């Protein structure tokens, strides 16, 4: 069902940024998969710590990138990024919150994925103007950076609080969608975007339906219609009552906020083909109680919307999951926050995307993660598994306030064709945060040989509360 929203769309072509970075060496390869920064066929793990102290600047923010290997993410091969890193635009300042949002695509199609980092607290033309940094992939990993074009700095704040990338306008070039607050809540930066490219234009959308003070807070994208062109899932709040709102947008349409399809309301989402029909499906996480959000549920919920040729499949009812759903481990309890994080990936190599769901509030916010399987008939609870820090083989121990499962990701770090499970707990060790990695086998993620590491391992200060894992490879 179409939902029409009054919108004014702004188009712009601005003066290009002045850059001193040299063009990359030629690399004869097809475009790399997202987050494969060194082009080795393994997905790398990017970890945002927007609360990190950098050179004495509280909450300046940092990002760790741990490169994949045959055994999973390998902390011995890593890159630390801050706004003080050589070649990065800007400088680390208090409350910049570098690393609040992450996204990846091979922007310049050189065979190496590039990293996008949102810094919504950066001061520019006004306080909290926000910025997005592009860090370039290469055979040796991430190196060199530039700022992403920012067209409407007087019309938004917190630019970069949400990010997505892909050929969003279906013209053959990779674009970037950016969430912000203010009159303009969603921007599209047109590709191609290279180390030295001038602006190729962009657009921004303002409307009076979305809450301008909250803005677009989270973005995901994928080929929901099966036509090879990714659509964007955006999360915000409504202006009239502040309730959560989620919608599917086609950014090929110039007035993309005048064409939105309602989705079940939530705060995070993931896109992937659960049933193998060629249409990506959408998992929407809403971890709120009904007292905090009318669309929530006791203990939180996840709603799976199946994709079809025109967006959501009208012939299939959405699947609503809570911890009271038959076959889902545990029980729905107030404050569990089931749906705090969601990710879709094929953990067992059977061709169907599986779903990881974080419940960061489980057991007094110690946290837990559930993995459910995809199949030809859709998502099933048969064989569902649950993991926490008390699971045999998982390092550490569940403690109040850890928030294990705040963010989850299913992606192939080993290159064996199966998506591995990575989990963040930003509350671990009184707000230091940590990440766990569980390798997948033919039967799914296994706790055997699971590894964990925190900010210190990857060069981030534990002064203050860095919140390591607040953002994670999506």
Q: What does the average pLDDT come to? A: 92
Low-confidence stretches: 1-28
Strand order of the largest sheet: 1-17-16-15-14
Please state the CA-atom Rg, rounded to the nearest Å. Answer: 20 Å
Q: Could you say which overall geometry the principal axes of the C-alpha atoms support? A: globular
**What does the main sheet amount to?**
5 strands, antiparallel
| Proportion in β-strands | 35-45%
Helical coverage, percent range: under 10%
Count the E strands.
34
Architecture overview:
The protein has 474 residues and is mostly beta strands. Helix content is 2%, strand content 35%. It has helices at 362-365, 428-431, and strands at 2-3, 7-12, 45-49, 62-66, 78-81, 101-105, 114-119, 131-135, 145-147, 157-166, 175-181, 184-189, 202-207, 218-222, 231-237, 244-249, 260-263, 268-272, 281-286, 301-305, 307-308, 311-312, 319-321, 338-345, 354-359, 368-373, 380-387, 407-411, 420-425, 434-438, 440-441, 444-445, 451-453, 471-472. A 5-stranded antiparallel sheet has the order 1-17-16-15-14, with no helix packed on it. The protein has a 5-stranded antiparallel sheet with strand order 2-13-12-11-10, with no helix packed on it. A 4-stranded antiparallel sheet has the order 5-4-3-34, with no helix packed on it. The longest helix is centred in the C-terminal third of the chain and has 4 residues, at 362-365.
């Amino acid at each position: 069902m179409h939902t029409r929203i009054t919108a004014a769309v702004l188009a712009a072509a601005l003066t290009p940024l002045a850059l001193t970075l040299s063009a990359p060496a030629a690399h004869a390869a097809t475009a790399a998969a997202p987050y494969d920064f060194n082009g080795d066929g393994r997905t790398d793990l990017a970890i945002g710590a927007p609360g990190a102290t950098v050179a004495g600047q509280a909450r300046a923010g940092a990002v760790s990138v741990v490169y994949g290997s045959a055994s999973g993410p390998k902390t011995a091969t890593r890159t630390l990024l801050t706004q003080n890193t050589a070649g990065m635009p800007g400088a680390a300042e208090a409350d910049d919150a570098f690393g609040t949002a992450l996204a990846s695509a091979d922007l310049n199609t050189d065979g190496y994925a590039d990293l996008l980092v949102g810094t919504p607290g950066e001061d520019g033309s006004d306080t909290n103007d926000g910025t997005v940094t592009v860090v370039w992939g290469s055979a040796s990993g991430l190196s060199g950076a530039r700022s992403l074009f920012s067209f409407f700095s007087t019309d938004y704040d917190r630019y970069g609080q949400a990010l997505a990338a892909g050929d969003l306008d279906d013209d053959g070039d990779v674009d970037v969608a950016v969430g912000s607050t203010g009159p303009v809540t969603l921007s599209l930066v047109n590709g191609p975007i290279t180390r030295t490219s001038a602006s190729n234009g962009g657009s921004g959308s303002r409307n009076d339906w979305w809450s301008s003070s909250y803005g677009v807070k989270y973005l995901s994208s994928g080929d929901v219609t099966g036509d090879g062109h990714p659509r964007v899932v955006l999360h915000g709040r409504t202006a009239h009552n502040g309730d959560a709102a989620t919608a599917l947008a086609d950014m090929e349409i110039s007035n993309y906020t005048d064409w939105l399809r309602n989705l079940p309301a939530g705060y995070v989402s993931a896109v992937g083909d659960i049933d193998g029909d060629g249409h990506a499906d959408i998992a929407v996480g809403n971890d709120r109680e009904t007292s905090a959000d009318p669309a929530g549920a006791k203990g939180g919920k996840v709603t799976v919307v199946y994709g079809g040729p025109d967006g959501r499949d009208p012939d299939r009812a959405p699947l609503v999951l809570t911890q009271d759903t038959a076959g889902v481990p545990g029980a729905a309890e107030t404050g569990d926050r089931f749906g705090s994080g969601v990710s879709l990936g094929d953990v067992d190599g059977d061709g169907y995307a599986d779903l990881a769901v974080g419940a960061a509030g489980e057991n007094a916010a110690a946290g837990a993660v559930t993995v459910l399987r995809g199949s030809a008939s859709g998502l099933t609870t048969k064989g569902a598994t649950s993991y926490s820090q008390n699971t045999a083989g998982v390092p550490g121990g569940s403690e109040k306030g850890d928030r294990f499962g705040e963010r989850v990701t299913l992606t192939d770090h080993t290159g064996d064709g199966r998506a591995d499970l990575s989990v963040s707990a930003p509350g671990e060790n009184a707000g230091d945060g940590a990440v766990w990695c569980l390798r997948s086998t033919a039967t799914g993620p296994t706790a055997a040989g699971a590894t964990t590491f925190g900010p210190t391992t990857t060069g981030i200060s534990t002064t203050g509360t860095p919140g390591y894992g607040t953002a994670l490879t999506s």
